[in-house]
Amino acid sequence: MNVLNLRKSSEKSTLAVLITLAALLLFILKSASKIHPFYELLLLAFTIISFVVIFLMLSSKKKLTICRHGIFYSSAFGNVHIEPNKTKKIKQFSKYGFNCVVIIGHGYFIFAPFYYLTSKQKQRLKRYDNNLLHWLEVTRKRSKFQGF
Description:
It is a single chain. The protein is of the alpha+beta class. The chain folds into 2 domains: 3-8 and 62-141, PH-domain like (Roll); 11-57. It has helices at 11-31, 39-59, 119-126, 132-141; strands at residues 3-5, 7-8, 61-67, 70-75, 78-82, 87-95, 98-105, 108-113, 115-116.
């Protein structure tokens, strides 16, 4: 396993559903009067959905790769490289069809929405308690990587 190329799933459909829901709420808000009892609740729901959409779009990564040289990702703010010895834990979360990968390290936290690990990748990382550095040390000892 030289490189973990993480895959995205359902980014466009999730954002489309959230944007459609926000547009529907906006339409209802425009047609309802301000004295309606549910007006403030609908306004709060619209605000929360809007913030979630903005957060997901800003934190979205274009490409996320984990390899022996560390973690590489590109986002709207540029390309980033993180050394493998600064990575503590890699964890995938999945709830109601929404996938995300969280990478925790010394002095940083990466939230990658819509990304997921395949079962083979999860199995290999789980073997080392989701610790990238431990996985890299073991693979180096087994000399899977030449020239490392």
